[in-house]
Amino acid sequence: MTPRPKGSSTEASSPWKQRLLTITKWGSITGLVMVLILAGLFFIAYRSIDIPSANADFTTETTHVYYSDGKNELGAFAIQKRDPIDLEDMPETLKDAVVAAEDQSFWTNEGIDPKGILRAAFSNASGGVTQGASTITQQYVKVLYLTQERSWKRKVKEAILSLKVENQLTKDDVLEGYLNTIYFGRGAYGVQAAAQAYFEVDAKDLNLKQSAVLAALLNDPNDLDPANGKAAKQALKGRYQYVIGEMIEMDEVDNGEGERAYKRLPDFPPVDTEDAYEGQTGHVLQMVKKELLRLGFTEQEINGGGLEVTTTFTEKAMDAALEGMREARPPGFGYQALHAAVATVEPGTGAVRGIFAGQDYLLSQLNWAVSGGQAGSTFKPFALAAGIKDGFSLKDTFDGNSPYYTDDGNPWENQGNYSYGPVSLIQATEDSINTAYIDLTVSMDGGPEKIIDTAIDMGIPPAEPAKEPWGFPTSSPALVPQTGVALGSQTVSPINMANAYATIANGGVAAEPYIIEKVVDRNGEERYDHKVQDHRALTEDIAADVGYAMQQVVASGSGAEALSGFAWPAAGKTGTATNDDGDVTSAWFSGFTAQYATAVMYVRGDGTGQLKDWLPYYFGGKFPAQTWRAVMDRVMEGEEPIEFPPPAYVDGEAPEEGHEPYTPPPPPPTTNQTREPNRPSRTNEPTTEPSTEPTTPTQQPTTQPTPPPPTTPPTTPPTNEPTPPSTPPGQQGTRTPRNRRSGRRAGRR
């Protein structure tokens, strides 16, 4: 054979081959050593970790909910419902359904499922559907022996204990323990309690469809509970069909029977509500539970985790809401027909101190303090704040005549089509003059958007929940930019309204409302401690001006009759709302002292029923204002009167000319003083029963000029404060024609 020349490719590659072989050899040795070390560590851990006693207080972990003092109990979430039964008393359909849903390798695995772990890790890492990898044995071990801590240490301990349990117990023992321990929702631990909670039958009598439902619920007991609404029931159906499908795939059920069961969920009997939820307690506890879930606590922790929850609610404010409502609501109108809602919020913190949600929770679970209704003219203060921010002043005048036509030709009216002439923003607020507020809205560039932005900044949630949501609820349906936005066709809850008004009481600093102060777990560890979330929404001067105009509502405007003699300085706003058919759908009074802001709302039926000609008086200055007074007399008991700051009369560069303060012409010279005739009342929402006789006008604030009387007053003065229809695109509210002034200016001279 001819020898290869020196420097051939074979010789050149030999050092690389040698190096690769060396790396492979040492890599294999290192890997083997690591495996041996890990195996040794696992063996040591396996020998050193004993199966502990079951969690000592696992069967008695009641979650307690307290008033703000942290001592007096407001209520409690369900004590664990548990009634262990033997595996032989559980139907085969239930066992098969749970295995199909939770751990299909249960009968063959050793307590852990390496393939399942790898499959879940791959799915989670690749951005697919988040999957768990726990076997039935691991779930049983975690619930019975461990905590809910999420750490590698706990997972390793869980795996070791699972192997030990598998070695010491039979598969039947593990499954029996699991099915008597795992949480199914509704406070039910174990299949017997779950069968009773969902179907009012014993576990041994569960059929295929009922068994599949209970197996499906294990995936997410709260969000899949069919009692939680249509969305939850639809989600349950999807999981239920998955369970049935897997049972068919595993040959645990006959194809025909499985396909019949697959089509629809079983029937569910009505949910029994415990007496502990009667009155207003159930409404408050449901608010607390929903908020705990939002804060990251699980359904199992809430119902059986032994939490100690301190809320913001006070016994004084809760009792005041209940007793004040009872005192002032019209007699003879049942709670199922007429709904009164009350909410009291603390300025500066956003703490919700008291609510009245409506009728007894056992009779209706609808919380009107959260559901709310059309805001009506209680929304005008946000337009006032927006106008002052945009450059207008309290003393600037706007068109109070009716009708009032906007540039698009749409007419807007005051109640009774009453004309006031040019009015200041003080009088426009005091008498709730719709046309003046429409004039203010269209006199700003992008007026509707600015009003909404200001309202949101002051605490009214947007039409859709924000990226970081706040409020109860977190949205205000129909809060969209349109000409009549100041007249209040959008839906706002009393809690959110009271909180936004609290911004004015707090000098323009808005705080997010909240109901949970602190949460401590069963081990005494503080799991949550609220921090006030606030920001400046208005300058102090603008807040003072808005508050001053609202004080005139109480002193001499549409809220004066009900609040006459109230012992503390107060400010507020009346409101009623009408729908497209002209039906009055809500009546409001919202107001504040320096210490508390309270909103009161009255609605009928489903929240859209007609109040006019049904109640003896339907305007905000009557029953809502009287209720506010009765509630606040109790809330404010023992509080010192605190005066509001004087008006600052902020005067910026107005976006449109023609709104300068009105200066009446000098009177003609005369030797005999002429007595001015009486004029109709200027209030757009009266506080007394409508009259056909004109009345003497209320005294104008000394800081604002008095407009001359209308040249053609109506024969009947205004009788209430109307607000816009509910849903017309572009316009809403009671409509008044507009005499738009031409020309815009950069500022006031």
TrEMBL record:
Q: What GO cellular component term, any one, is given?
A: outer membrane-bounded periplasmic space
Pfam families tied to this protein: Transgly, Transpeptidase
Q: Name one GO biological process term.
A: regulation of cell shape
Q: What is this protein called?
A: Penicillin-binding protein
Q: Which family does it belong to?
A: In the C-terminal section; belongs to the transpeptidase family. In the N-terminal section; belongs to the glycosyltransferase 51 family.
Location of the Penicillin-binding protein transpeptidase domain: 344-606
Q: Where is the Glycosyl transferase family domain?
A: 75-247
Superkingdom of origin = Bacteria
> What organism is listed for this UniProt entry?
Nocardioides antri
Give the Low complexity compositional bias ranges. Answer: 671-703
